[in-house]
Write a structure and sequence with these properties.
single chain; five-stranded antiparallel β-sheet; 1 helix; binds zinc ion
Length: about 90
């Protein structure tokens, strides 16, 4: 997935106004995935970190697994187009 594709997806997802059980739009920071999160409604649409999209409303979220010394915690946050920056790679 390119940065332009990610930005396009984020813009479309951020424009969704439909209420949905996923509540992706409420995860403004990295958040533990709730036990009742509707995983069955998600599809993977990118993988630089996992980018998932709700098949019900179209909102998108970033996902990763935090691996601490004593725990493993799945985390989620909304894909916010305002936070996507294409930074040149260092020399
Ligand atoms: Zn949804």
């Amino acid at each position: 997935m390119t940065v332009d594709e990610l930005k396009s997806l984020a813009d479309a997802a951020a424009a969704v106004t439909q209420a949905c059980a996923c509540a992706i739009d409420t995860y403004r920071e990295w958040t533990r995935v709730p036990i009742d999160f509707p995983e069955e409604s998600m599809r993977t649409v990118g993988t630089f970190v996992r980018v998932m999209q709700c098949t019900v409303c179209g909102r998108c979220a970033l996902r990763y697994v935090e691996a601490g010394g004593y725990y493993v915690e799945p985390r989620i946050r909304t894909l916010d187009p305002r936070l996507i920056v294409d930074v040149p790679a260092p020399d």
